[in-house]
Specification:
Layout: E1 13-15, H1 17-26, E2 38-40, E3 47-53, E4 60-67, E5 75-84, H2 87-94, E6 118-125, E7 145-148, E8 151-153, H3 159-162, E9 174-175, E10 187-191, E11 196-197, H4 204-207, H5 213-224, E12 231-235, H6 242-251, E13 255-260, H7 266-271, E14 276-279, H8 286-293, E15 299-304, H9 309-313, E16 319-327, H10 341-346, E17 350-353, H11 359-370, E18 378-382, H12 386-394, E19 401-405
Parallel strand pairs: 12-13, 12-15, 13-14, 15-16, 16-17, 18-19
Antiparallel strand pairs: 1-2, 3-4, 5-6, 5-10, 5-19, 6-7, 7-11, 8-9
Bound molecules: zinc ion (2 copies).
């Protein structure tokens, strides 16, 4: 017997969340067989508020007549509650997002609706959406928190999907940055076979940034292969990705050197667990500083979380022999790494990149935050602030992450 509300397209119900949670705990009965409070999906508006970009490099415009997505039989509809604002949203809006070929990505869906660090609640489930497991953690149900990540759809058949690296899917993968509308809208349809189902006991305000900045930082630290007591440098340590990289590095016992610009970021970085802070604006040579702190050897690993070519300029020079540079932040435009090939060969360096992570990786980082081991530093602001937030991102004025409140969690 199914334990979720299997609803036909023309007979979906929306159930009061607290009632549903109680029902779920008390019974394993099929929900449609129960007498529950419900209202028809037809009570949803046909149009909604959305923050649209009509053309790349254009301004953010708030409209109220954007269509509410139609939900396919294999999709769910979610009401968006909160979403982080990622630097990639800014680059896509500005037409400066870099692609795998090193060129700018200009082929995006227009009007563009960004937002890929979103948290919503499922409010409708298509009739063909299947629960593939009997476990509560994988149960698709009305009222459940769901993540709106960078990846929206994958093929599940290509060699990367089969290898658990579906973020590199080559079978027609789509994302919420270039191909599909993201979380800067009130309602979003999501692929029922690729849902990021989240536990009920999360804080929806803080979990959004985990879904892009967090997973990228986590994978960068993981790819460094850092061991307890080893030195790890985080460049851009006070930013959205960087402040989480500092915390993941601490979780694995690394000694962290935080690098960022301005003395006002010092206390913030040290409060995250960094042992040392280097203000790149006030030292003549960052590399010399790192060498001095690590007693001349250099760091075992560097995570570059900053989206700036200048941040990458000396990154590999901070490494000791055999060290790893993990590239997480993508600078705007098409800059190249300037590290000397001689340095890479003679020092035996490893240079790795990381594009977000798989759904499995994502659930690992969600759990670290749910358990309180990694806490995003967020500032919750009204949705209307989005244009201002973009400006502040461009001017490097944000500590941690700004999270926009899209709707009440009712
Ligand atoms: Zn992002
Ligand atoms: Zn695939």
């Amino acid at each position: 017997m199914k334990r979720f509300a299997r609803l036909s397209l023309d007979h979906r119900v929306i159930i009061d969340r607290s009632s549903l949670a109680l029902i779920s705990r008390l019974t394993r009965l099929s929900l449609p067989s129960l007498t529950v409070q419900h209202r028809s999906l037809s009570s949803l508006p046909s149009t909604q508020k959305a923050a649209v970009i009509r053309h790349q490099t254009g301004p953010v415009e708030f409209v109220t007549d954007y269509p509410v997505p139609k939900v396919g039989r294999d999709e769910v509809l979610a009401k968006v509650l909160y979403t982080g604002v990622c630097q990639s949203d800014l680059h896509t809006k500005n037409g400066t997002a870099a692609g795998a070929d090193g060129k700018n990505i200009t082929n995006i869906k227009l009007p563009h609706i960004g937002g890929h660090e979103g948290i919503g609640r499922i409010i409708a489930i298509g009739s063909d959406v299947k629960n593939s497991s009997n476990s509560d953690s994988e149960e698709i149900r009305i009222g459940r928190y769901v993540g709106i990540r960078f990846i929206s759809r994958i093929c599940r058949r290509c060699k990367y999907c089969l290898a658990g690296q579906e973020q590199h899917c080559i079978g027609g993968m789509t994302n919420h940055l270039h191909h599909e509308d993201g979380a800067f809208q009130e309602y979003i349809s999501l692929d029922g076979d690729n849902l990021t189902l989240l536990p009920d006991d999360i804080d929806p305000k803080e979990m959004g940034p985990i879904l892009c900045a967090g997973i990228t930082a986590y994978k960068c630290v993981q790819k460094c292969g850092i061991k307890p007591g080893e030195w790890l440098v985080v460049i851009g340590a006070a930013g959205g990705m960087g402040h989480l990289a500092v915390q993941y590095a601490r979780v694995v016992g690394a000694r962290v050197i935080a690098i960022d610009g301005g003395d006002h970021k010092r206390d913030f970085c040290l409060s995250l667990g960094a042992e040392r802070y280097i203000d790149f604006r006030s030292v003549p040579s960052i590399v010399e500083q790192v060498q001095r702190i690590t007693n001349g050897g250099g760091a075992h690993a560097v995570v570059c979380a900053a989206g700036s070519p200048r941040a990458y300029a000396n990154a590999a020079d901070m490494l000791r022999i055999g060290g790893t540079l993990a590239c997480g932040g993508i600078p705007p435009g098409t800059p190249h790494l300037e590290t000397s090939i001689g340095t890479i060969v003679i020092k035996g360096l490893r240079i790795v990149g990381s594009l977000v992570g798989s759904l499995r990786d994502t659930m690992e980082v969600v759990e670290l935050t749910r358990l309180g081991k990694v806490k995003p530093a967020i500032e919750v602001r009204p949705w209307k602030d989005l244009p201002k937030v973009y400006e502040e991102l461009e001017n490097d004025q944000i500590l941690g992450r700004v999270v926009l409140k899209i709707a009440e969690d009712e």
